[in-house]
Design brief:
It is a single chain. It is built from seven helices and four strands, in the order βαβαββααααα. By secondary structure, it is an alpha+beta fold. It folds into two domains: about 80 residues, Glutaredoxin; about 120 residues, Up-down Bundle (Glutathione S-transferase Yfyf (Class Pi), Chain A, domain 2). Strand 3 and strand 4 form a beta hairpin. The protein is globular. The two termini are about 20 Å apart.
């Protein structure tokens, strides 16, 4: 299999971290230069019609896009260690939490970065700095939810490491491009959790 990814982008990193946690070997990584608009070439659009990374090329030639879908496939071919829930109830609650992180923490964070960081101008053209600043406030507010969650349990979706931790970690790490650190913003629990996750081999 081949994974089309972009270095430093959070969604490809989520898949890379998932693969590392699973210990899946033999997936070739193919970098896609987003700043050079390589994701908009006819060749890449044939694999990903909406010009998005990551994309997993399967051995049978099919192309699977969308981070969560790729991870679902990988969970199916490598069931252990389990990262998405061992029964329907666990899967539902882990997915709920993962989606909340993705939609309410990671998305406003990405909008803040994409609309305010000059290095992202080639990808977000035109940039709307006022919108980016507003999304920063949404991100900060919703990070308060995560701070509260981590006050009750060891990990984002419960007492063990799951895909929700991967999503949250890769999102928060992306905020480093704007020099954001959770602890410095008053989120001590998020910072402590982030530091623990950063020690995992998959995070490195």
């Amino acid at each position: 299999m081949k994974l089309y990814m972009a270095p430093r982008a959070p969604n490809p990193r989520r898949v890379q971290m998932f693969i590392a946690e699973k210990g899946i070997a033999g997936i070739e990584e193919i970098p896609v230069d987003l700043n050079a608009q390589a994701h908009k070439t006819p060749e890449f659009l044939a694999k990903s019609p909406l010009a998005r990374v990551p994309v997993l090329e399967l051995d049978d030639g099919r192309h699977l896009g969308e981070t969560r879908a790729i991870c679902t496939y990988l969970e199916g071919i490598a069931p252990t260690p389990n990262l998405m829930g061992e029964d329907f109830s666990a899967r539902a609650f882990i997915e709920m939490t993962d989606r909340r992180v993705e939609l309410y923490v990671m998305w406003p964070l990405a909008s803040w970065v994409r609309h305010t960081h000059p290095g992202l101008a080639p990808l977000e053209n035109p940039q709307f700095p006022d919108y980016g600043a507003a999304q920063k406030e949404v991100f900060i507010r919703n990070l308060g939810w995560l701070e509260e969650v981590l006050g009750r349990q060891a990990h984002v979706a419960g007492e063990r490491f799951t895909i929700a931790d991967i999503t949250a970690f890769c999102g928060i790490e992306f905020a480093k491009v704007l020099k954001f650190r959770p602890g410095e913003a008053g989120f001590a629990r998020v910072q402590a959790w982030r530091d623990r996750v950063a020690e995992r081999p998959s995070a490195r």
